[in-house]
Design goal:
By secondary structure, the chain is α/β, with parallel strands linked by helices. The chain has a single domain, classed as 3-Layer(aba) Sandwich (Rossmann fold). About 40% of the residues lie in helices and about 25% in strands. The protein has a 10-stranded mixed sheet, with helices on both faces. A hairpin with a 3-residue loop joins β1 and β2.
Amino acid sequence: MKNLNLFFALGSIILLVCLSSSSVDAYTLSPDQPGPYHIGSYRIVYLVPQYGLFTATIRYPATTDGKRTPVDTAAAPCPGIVVANGFAGSEKQITWVPDHLTSYGYVTLCFTPPHRLSLDTTQWASGFIGGITALRKQNTRIWSPIYQVLDEETWGAIGLSMGGGGCVEATGTPGSQIDASVALAPAGFPDVFAAARNIVVPIQLQVGTVDKIVPPEHVLPIYTEHLTNDTTKEYLAITGGNHIGYIDEAFAIPAQQWGIDNPPGISVEQQHNISRTYFTAWFQYHLRHLDEYYTYIFGEEAAHDLDSGVLADFRFHIL
């Protein structure tokens, strides 16, 4: 009996070691590939007094995929990342971004603002700031699926178009809690430019070379003229990518056919793969401080993308 107990004890130790090793390996995946976690989700609304009710989906690493499935506590403490789509869009059209990030162990909140046709980037910026507050509240409520799961000291933000401009603005708002951000084809307005000058945390800007709605010549000046050298910053232009290529494929393909954007030079899937490589590595490196992801955003992998033509332009400044 003693030998049998010893056998089971040793087996348990080996299993724990294997699980521990698997967990470490999970954080060194190629960032264009799905992460190791299932995705649980649930809907909330939160109020930003000057604008109204924001609707949102919270996603979290779970033991199985589905609505309000049990959280995978192995991922905790989880950094939080707030996500937003752009003008006239909703969070239902950009699910590929929070899905991918949640599979890497982040808790994400993807919101739709109350005034989707507004050109006020501050509405989107308020959505990011309010989204962090909403996640903090969910983390303290015992009936919440993410109760005590969040790392409340670590926050990210990523947005597209008006959501990208709002992301820049929120990141540069005095007292911002955002630790790293990514702006996809960000809309450029005076409030965005002014906020960009205040940013002192890592920020990445992405754009497609054939984007008709927010072309590279509108995004690059944010990097060169408004973001200062007081922060780590990065700019990349995806060869053949356009604006529509940043939304979910089910919505992007019909939108491409309507002619509201320039024809793309790459598929939506290719644009997503390139984009998520960079934004996932950005958050893994800056929020989780995983050095293995340096190569994808500053090192050999990024240089290869530029040399091979995957990127038409790539520049960065490391503080």
